[in-house]
Structures are given as structure tokens and as C-alpha cells.
Amino acid sequence: MASDVEIAQQFTPKPIHEISDQLNIKPQHVLPYGRDMAKISLDALKTKSTTQGKLILVSATTPTPSGEGKTTTTTTIGLGQAFALLNESVCLALREPSLGPCLGMKGGATGGGYSQIMPSDKINLHFTGDFHAITSANNLLSAAIDNHIYQNNVLNIDPRQLVWRRVIDMNDRSLRNIVLGLGGKMQGVPREGGFDITAASEVMAMLCLANDYADLKTRLDRTLIGYTYDSKAIYAKDLEITGAMMALLRDAMQPNLVQCFEGTPAFVHGGPFANIAHGCNSVIATRMAIHHSDWAITEAGFGFDLGAEKFFDIKCRVAQLDPDAVVLVTTVRALKMHGGKDKHNLTVEDLSAVAKGLENLDKHIESVELFNKHPVVALNRFVSDTDAEIALIKARCVEHGVSFAETTHHADGGKGAIELAKAVMASIAKSKPFKPLYELDLSVVDKVRKVSRAMYGATDVAFSKQAEKDLQHVEQLGLTHLPICIAKAPSSLSDDPTLHGRPRDFEVTVNSIQINAGAGFLVVLTGNIMRMPGLPKKPAANNINLLVNGVIEGLE
What we know:
- This protein is an alpha/beta fold.
- 34% of the residues lie in helices and 18% in strands.
- The protein has three domains: 4-128 and 252-430, 3-Layer(aba) Sandwich (Rossmann fold); 130-248, Domain 2, N(10)-formyltetrahydrofolate synthetase (2-Layer Sandwich); 444-526, Formyltetrahydrofolate synthetase, domain 3, CATH 3.10.410.10.
- Strands 1, 2, 3, 4, 5, 6, 13, 14, 15, 16, 17 and 18 form a twelve-stranded mixed beta sheet that branches. Strands 19-21-22-20 form a four-stranded mixed beta sheet.
- Helix 14 links the parallel strand 17 (376-380) and strand 18 (403-407).
- It is globular, with a radius of gyration of 23 Å.
């Protein structure tokens, strides 16, 4: 089969106004970025809608180093194309790729094969500049903080108690911990600091959860940046800088409209990671999709225990959303690995490994049902999969009483997901209102314990001394009512990335808790999770090249 780049070169884009016309978006609300991309004005949400589209959430079993996590985006796109082939009014709402992982280990994040969002090269790289705007707004606040300290520090900010960090959209481990302000009296006040990746910035989370410009301004104003020498909280509004941050974010707030390989409309907007942030595209983009189509399909990053839990417990609470159907994507290869098979030997039939790996699927099905939802299991079929292996997975789904569908959308585009689309439409009849995993009036410790036990299967949770100190700050600021966003290894249900399958009898370790008062949640960091990834020994950037005809090769 041709590579993703070779397939993308076969693509003939429809003019972007034809895509917006499919969604009945008025021309005055379409702000083109060239021929095949556009920003959509927030005013498009004010137009009268005759129907409220149904929302479909696509999540997955625990991803593996073999790239099985990418099946979530690809399946979301393939499912959307299948709905379009069935003459249904449909629109996707997806996250934007982050530049660092695209050039690092993960590669591109625009789907694969004949289920890609286009133009994939532009979306994977600079796109419409949203990540740059978020980076700039974040770092403007950082610069204002250090400048204020340098310029006589009338707010009495304690440089040792700053919690706001700089960001960059690149995997760069050398920036995790740095010393700023060196070089003498005229260069600033020396202090320790560091960088996170842009996808982990609280500005990213705020933009993705904001309802409109006014809501975003409110969130920016209440952003905690640090403490004074007498331990009083300092917020971004105290620096009188949030108006300028809003100016930088004006265009980034507008969702991006593009198209799938087969011309299906897709809003691609916002890109928080699910392992270190809340893992969902913007509320505005999701509402745009619901407002302008009968079926809106969105995704939650990584496995259900990470992205989907946060989708329900954070995004659905904030935006008052409730998906009408849930798709749980899995693969034979992933289940083999969770069954103990070596990641380099997943193409050989091994019924025993599949059978053992089904425990991972079991747990995710149970987790979906904890939210009062009934999933449809989508098996993304690879050429190496055998009928006997697939039969084992289908039989387990029958035992659970959930629908099952094979998909081949990577090779066949939308027609390869027709069976899945029909199963999803049929599942709507069983839809019930979702219930959150925990109530907001629980203590922070009880919230973490509830998620860790219910989602991950942990026996208990241990809090480090630093985490206990952080809890005291949360209590002093009166923020115990906030939902939690647990940062955890994506390759395991536990906080230990080496434990595959369905780990049991383990304890989750909380190392620290970060207060994201602007975003409106608490980031609970577990295990060895870091908010700034590093590049692998041979990054994907080594394989990327610009050809003389302007085509970018190697970006997959």
C-alpha cells in the first residue's frame, strides 16, 4: 500500500467554500487561509439551527509503542467518511497536531491511509498558527512576570514560588529545568525556571474550554502565576497583561475548517495532550460541528482511561455535552502486546496472546459503562490479522453484550467503516445520559482515589510530601471543588508504562498537583510523567525532507 504522503499527493481538494456550504455556514463567517483551509467566525454559532446534531465520541484501548494509538484519529476520520457515504449530514471535531511529537517519535497526527484530514502536511506543521499564538500568549505572561520582578516588584512576587512556566512547541528535554536572568544586573533577576511543551500550557487548556472571548478573558484573569513573599496568591490579572494576551489569541479562538480525503468537513482546533493535559479539541469546535450537522464525531486522546475520562469529567461538565454514542477502537496487534507478545513480533498469529490481551479490552468496556454508556467496539483490521484472532475478539464483545464492527478505513477509506457507522447509528437507541465518575464536592484525595480505582484498577493512591504541600495550597485557595486532570503514562492502565494488559494490585503515586485555576481543573502528576517530552535517539525529523517540487516527504 502507498505511504500516507503518497496517498495525500493523490488528493484533489475541494475549495473551502464548498466545504463550508455543506455545513450551511454563511460566507461572511468564513475566513479563508488559502484555498483549502479557513477560520470560522464565532458568530457562526449564533445562526439559527433547525436541529441539534448527535455527538459521537471515539476512544480506544490502551495504545502501544507500535503506533496503535493513532487508530483513534484514523478511525474517527474513517467513520465520518462512512457517514457521508451513507448520505448523512456529518462533521468531525478533532485536535490539532503538536509540532514536537510530529518531528519526534510520534510522527504526524492527521490520520492515515485513505482516512486523513487534508492538507495533512500543513495541518501537521504550522497550520493556521494557533500553536504559535498560544505559545506567544503564554510567554508574554512569562516575560511580564520576570519584567515586573526586575522593575522593583511592587507586587512583592517571590521568584522562588512562581508556578508559571514558559512553553515551546518542540520536544526539548534540555529546557525542562533552566536558570534564567544570568549575565549581570542589567539582564534580570536570576531564578530557576523551565519550559513545558505548548500542548501542556494552561493557555491551551483555557482556549479549548472557553465558550467565547469573554469566557477566555475571565479564565486568563484568574490564572495563578505564583505567590508573594508572604505566600499570598498572585494572578495574571494583577500584571494587567491579559488584554494583550487576548489580542494574541483573537484568531486562535476561531476554529479551523478543513476536509477529509473524501471531502467530509472537519473542524480541527486545539491540541492538549491527554497524558499531560485534558486531551480534547476545543468546546467551540465541538459545538460548531453539532450546530452545523446531524452527526458530530469527536475523539479523546490515548486510551479511554486518559482522554475519554477527562472528556466526560472535565469537558462534558464545562460545556454541558453528552455523547449519544461511544466507539472503542482496538486492534489485534495491541491486544497481542497486552497479552505479553513482543512489540517486534506482532504480525504472527498468536491466539493465546490475543486471549490474554482481551483483559485490557474488558477493562475499557467496563470503564465506558461506568459513565452509563454502551460502547461499540471497532476493530481496526491489519493485513496480518487472522480470522481466528478476530473471532476471539468478537466473541468477547458478544459476552459483554456490546456491538462489534471490523473496519478497513485505512486501506479503503469511508467504505471500510460502513459497518461501524451502521452499528453506531443503531446504538443510539440505547443511549442514556452520562453520569460523571465523581462528584465535585468530594475532597481532592477522594477524587484521585476514585478515578485511580475505577479507571485504572489501582488498589490505592500514595501522595508524596510535595503533593501533600500542594494539597494545602489547593485548600487555602478554596479550589477543592475543581475537577481533576490526572497526568499519567498512556501506555499502561497504571502509572508504570511497563505494565501492560490489565495490571492489578498496584498503587498510583501522586508526585505533585498543579493548580490550573484559569482552566478550571487541578493537574495531578503521577509516576514519572513529564510535561516536556524529549526527542528519541533517531527522531522523525531525520526522515523529513523538502523536495524541489515543494512536496514534503517523510512526514507520516
